[in-house]
From TrEMBL:
Cellular component GO terms, alphabetical: outer membrane-bounded periplasmic space
Molecular-function GO term, any one: endopeptidase activity
This protein's name: Peptidase family S41
Domain Tail specific protease: 531-727
One Pfam family named in its UniProt record: Peptidase_S41
GO biological process entries: proteolysis; signal transduction
Length: 762
């Protein structure tokens, strides 16, 4: 009997503990949600000088760590005041909703010489990657800003003639580490310059404060005109670099290529831009030899940010602006209210009222000590809070996406408690952004560059997972084999988890990304698949591989039909083909992936000049939560060109992998009815990307502007639908057929045997 009573008491104790833990966690999440709200409102819409002076990435981590400990409303309000008053002295928190804000507290006694200061966001620029050239920017109008004119990237480079290595594999290695000024943006740099003026950049992020050897392996093709090895640094911080080595493969062996001064023991200026000499470029950065630390020998190279900073006033970037006296007034959690002005007065001395200099200095110093490792829970919270706010205030598609974004914030914060690794955190960020249905969204982590795939590809065809390429003859698989299980799970069950991590506007893009992501994993990791009842062990030992339809840039199908591969052909080559195209009766245009800068071809299909002026729209924000957003219209305004080719039978092949620029292209084809579209719906995602930078080397690519179809209807999440649907078949894959192209050719044959004035679709 005593045993039974003791057992019952134990169960009651466990039950109460679980309830207490659940209640405690819910309180922490509510505190974090309140902090997240204020964080976004102040960072993006309150114009005090303090806002522009702090490190907001560190502040998200620091603040999250403090507020999660609060056990009452009063304690939370005190903590929020401690956090935000040094940045925004005019902020108010209370447990009662205030009817009035005392504007005299933010009004100088004499306003002569003062100007109104406020935020304007065209898209958003704060916290985004400055290396990415976008149309997006943010301005604290009339506020004093420290403008950094440093180069975005500094580069140490050694140029090498590739002639001896054409057709070979090459390997570049070097030793590197972060310097005393920690950097998240240093990397080994390996560039192949090409005949057409383009270049392939391969890079490996430098991580950690211990010397480590990094490695990049690639192939040198006949289009390569120059090889560059070296290191690069962007943003603040420093890295050390030593003992670079280059090898080429010969009969399975790596043969070393001697490099100039590769141990850096000989003094050099790094200023001579000559072949086989080390050269450095980077305004706002230094490159020098140091004898204080090295991997081998006495010296190594240190790349260090120094900055070229000038004080300027923020300029107005569009007409709309908030008026003095306008406030953000919100209930940030049950029973806690806050107010903060959208406009402050500013003069040469800065914004009014002034922050307490001692409190602000202490906060800045505290932020310098914030640890930024993904294994730390506050770092994960900080990244989630940052991500939430960028989309909450600036994502242009919430009007067409069915998602409860605050609810998704709660889920992501909750998942963060149990994440045990950087990979777990990556998955949380993927699941957090997946419901946005933005095909551009891609969450990356700087230490994941070594991921590999097994030497196969697969696709969903006829509702089955089908092997489409086998790149290792020793694997007992053939094209057309059907996979029924992966790692002991039914394939559909396995893909459910994969799909939950992908943001996609349409099923075509979702399947495309899932087919890739499902194969990715750590190098040499196993993947067990079941085919024909047999388990087959695959090893992830290959570089990620995709298998788009491989076609020539152009081909004369017959005397009447011409094929253009818009995914690969350059515009200058199309121009050379115009006389030949003018003689044809049908032109098949393949746009299943991404155009090669050749949208000028559309001009030959237009009978008159393009007149659609507003299909691209950059959001212009002065208020939070996407309220009262205006738009800057953008377009291509293409001219019509001769000879006019639009009187021919024009067929466009497309599918779910055609996204972004490809959909801008297809917008003209559908909008001006320039041809027949066959295949599958496009990806349903368009607009210039933006790149959010988070702590610990995480980043999120996303769509920063709204794009519509030419008639003003919704494109996002729908795509361009074909006039004639075409599906891949398993038999077609087995026989190596391009069923999309075959259908296009079949349609040209129908057109040729039809009266010219008759539309073959009628």
């Amino acid at each position: 009997m005593r045993f039974k009573i003791g057992y019952i008491l134990l169960l009651l104790f466990i039950s109460c503990s679980e309830k207490n833990n659940s209640s405690d966690r819910q309180q922490k999440i509510e505190n974090l949600q309140a902090f997240a709200s204020v964080y976004g409102y102040v960072k993006y819409f309150h114009p005090s000088d303090g806002v522009s002076e702090i490190d907001w990435t560190s502040f998200a981590i620091y603040g999250a760590n403090l507020v999660e400990k609060c056990e009452s409303k009063e304690e939370l309000i005190n903590t929020l005041n401690t956090l935000f008053k040094p940045i925004a002295p005019s902020i108010n928190f209370s447990t009662t909703k205030s009817d009035k804000y005392n504007l005299t507290t933010i009004t100088p006694k004499n306003t002569e010489g003062f100007k109104p200061t406020f935020w304007q966001h065209s898209g958003v620029g704060i916290g985004m990657d400055p290396q990415l050239r976008t149309p997006y920017q943010s301005s604290r109008v009339n506020g004093i800003i420290n403008k950094d004119y440093s180069f975005v990237v500094s580069k140490l480079t050694l140029k090498i003639d590739p002639v001896r290595y054409i057709g070979r594999k090459v390997k570049y290695t070097a030793w590197a580490k972060n310097g005393d000024l920690h950097s998240e943006k240093g990397y080994l740099r390996f560039v192949l310059e090409k005949l057409d003026g383009t270049s392939d950049l391969n890079k490996e992020a430098v991580v950690g404060e211990q010397w480590k050897q990094y490695e990049i392996i690639t192939d040198i093709d006949s289009y390569t005109t120059s090889i560059q090895v070296g290191a690069a640094l962007s943003g603040k911080g420093s890295i050390l670099y030593d003992l670079p080595q280059l090898f080429y493969e010969n009969n399975g062996n790596w043969i070393e290529v001697p490099l100039s001064n590769q141990d850096f023991e000989t003094e050099t200026s790094f200023s001579d831009y000559k072949p086989e000499k080390w050269h450095f470029e980077g305004v706002g950065y230094t490159c020098s030899l140091t004898n204080s630390d090295s991997h081998q020998g006495n010296k190594s190279v240190v790349l260090k940010y120094t900055g070229v900073i000038e004080k300027e006033r923020g300029q107005q970037i569009f007409e709309n602006h908030p008026k003095f006296g306008e406030l953000i007034e919100k209930e940030i959690t049950k029973g806690i209210y806050f107010q903060v002005p959208l406009v402050l007065y500013s003069n040469e001395g800065g914004t009014y009222p002034k922050s307490d200099s001692g409190s602000l200095l202490k906060l800045k110093n505290d932020l310098k000590e914030v640890q930024q490792e993904a294994t730390d829970l506050p770092v994960r919270w900080g990244n989630v809070i940052n991500t939430y706010n960028v989309f909450q205030h600036f994502y242009p598609y919430f009007d067409v996406v069915d998602v409860d974004w605050p609810e998704e914030l709660q889920k992501a914060l909750s998942r963060s408690f149990t994440d045990a690794s950087a990979k777990d955190h990556l998955v949380t960020l993927e699941k957090f952004t997946s419901p946005l249905k933005d095909g551009h969204i891609n969450v990356t982590y700087k230490r994941n560059s070594g991921w590999s795939t097994p030497p196969i590809t697969w696709k969903w065809i006829e509702n089955k997972l089908v092997i489409t390429n086998v790149l290792d003859s020793e694997i007992p698989l053939v094209v057309g084999d059907i996979v029924t299980e992966i790692n002991g799970k039914n394939t559909k069950e396995y893909f459910e988890e994969i799909n939950s991590r992908i943001s996609a506007g349409t099923e075509g893009w979702l399947n495309h990304k899932a087919e890739q992501l499902s194969l990715l994993g750590e190098k040499d990791a196993e993947l067990i698949i079941t085919v024909n009842g047999q388990d087959i062990k695959l090893i992830r030992n290959s570089y990620p591989y995709s298998s788009p339809t491989r076609m020539a840039d152009h081909e004369k199908i017959n005397d009447s039909v011409y094929y253009l591969n818009l995914n690969s052909i350059a515009m200058e080559d199309i121009e050379k083909l115009i006389p030949e195209l003018a003689k044809s009766k049908s032109i098949i245009c393949d746009l299943r992936v991404y155009p090669n800068g050749n949208h000028g071809f559309i001009s030959y299909l237009l009978k008159e000049n393009d007149t659609v002026s507003s299909w691209m729209k950059i959001p212009q924000s002065i208020y939070p939560d996407r309220k009262k957003v205006s738009y800057q219209n953008a377009n291509w305004m293409l001219p019509s060109k001769k000879p006019y080719l639009g009187d021919k039978q024009i067929i466009f092949i497309t599918k779910g992998t055609a996204m972004s620029y490809a959909e801008s292209y297809m917008g003209y084809i559908r909008g001006y009815n320039l041809g027949t579209i066959i295949g599958q719906p496009t990806a349903g995602t368009n607009g210039n990307i933006n790149l959010l930078q988070l702590s610990e080397g995480f980043s999120i690519r996303w769509t920063g502007m709204k794009v519509e179809k030419h008639d003003g209807s919704q494109l996002h999440g729908i795509g361009f639908l074909p006039d004639i649907y075409v599906n891949k078949s398993i038999e077609g894959v087995k026989s190596g057929k391009d069923e999309f192209l075959e259908k296009a050719i079949e349609l040209t044959e129908k057109r040729i045997t039809t009266k010219p004035e008759q539309n073959f679709l009628d």
